[in-house]
Design goal:
The chain is of the alpha/beta class and 260 residues long. The protein has helices at 21-30, 46-55, 75-85, 104-121, 133-142, 162-167, 184-192, 222-233, 237-252, and strands at 5-7, 33-38, 59-63, 90-96, 125-129, 150-153, 170-174, 198-200. The chain is built from nine helices and eight strands. The longest helix is centred in the middle third of the chain and has 18 residues, at 104-121. The structure holds zinc ion.
């Protein structure tokens, strides 16, 4: 696996990776990972992400408020996001997750507000969604999210739902969960969704691939996920890396505005 993998979602600014960013980028870089998309989770983290992106050519920042902090979202914060967003490649991560204690209607309001920001600044969305896919599709449609598209991060929806997201201009991102025992639903997505609509991510430090279970995840381990998916599809790791990276570049529009 030599060519140009893109980790479309990794939190190099968080937890055990904070302070280890240099080593993490070097380790992954040696395995062919050339680009790291670092999404925002909480507004207090945006400055740190911007600083990392200034320091490393390979880091592409995104800004947003994660559904677990949806109760922070109000009009002044959305204005701040809009100002910050123009320094990034996407708005995210945003979304819906009933596993958090924030009521879904508050999460939904935060999501709608951030989709409007994405449309205003014309940037794609990085979406976190668990167990609310039908509701999410309704919101994406109502808010015109297909104008910007984006990535369904760590996609845990079904193969059957995939065409609806693809139709709205979203690529589906696979993480280490595809390698887990019992990750059968995601393995079906990895096998059956047309390759050109798939991208890869680690979601490091979370979603550690099976073979490293129990450790904090790191961007280098995207290679484990890539090899696993290539095997599931019966294609070479090279082809998988090339196609998923092309797709990530297309949805995130990384070719326009190449970092200098
Ligand atoms: Zn994340």
């Amino acid at each position: 696996m030599s060519c140009c993998l893109i980790d479309s979602h990794c939190h190099l600014d968080l937890g055990p990776l904070a302070g280890e960013c240099d080593a993490a980028i070097r380790e992954a870089g040696a395995l062919g990972v050339g680009t790291f998309v670092v999404p925002g989770v909480h507004p207090d983290g945006w400055h740190g992400i911007a600083t990392l992106a200034d320091a490393y050519r390979a880091i592409r920042p995104a800004y947003g408020i994660h559904p677990m902090y949806a109760d922070l979202v109000d009009e002044p914060l959305l204005s701040r996001l809009q100002e910050q967003a123009v320094r990034g490649v996407a708005i995210g991560e945003v979304g819906l997750d009933p596993g958090y204690p924030i009521p879904l209607e508050i999460q939904e309001r935060a999501l709608r507000g951030q989709i409007r920001v994405a449309r205003a600044v014309d940037l794609p969305l990085l979406i976190h969604c668990r167990r609310s896919f039908q509701r999410l599709i309704t919101i994406l449609r109502e808010e015109g999210a297909e104008r910007v598209g984006g990535i369904m991060h760590g996609y845990s929806g079904s193969v059957e739902m995939a065409p609806q997201f693809i139709g709205l201009g979203f690529a589906l991102s696979l993480s280490g969960s595809v390698t887990w025992n019992g990750g059968r639903k995601t393995a079906r997505v990895a096998r059956e969704v047309p390759l050109k609509h798939l991208v890869l991510e680690t979601d490091a430090p979370d979603m550690t691939p099976q073979c490293h279970r129990g450790e904090w995840n790191r961007p280098a381990w995207i290679v484990e996920t890539a090899e696993w998916v290539a095997r599931l599809r019966g294609i070479t790791g090279e082809e998988l890396a090339r196609t998923t990276s092309d797709t990530a570049r297309r949805v995130l529009r990384l070719n326009n505005g190449e970092k200098t």
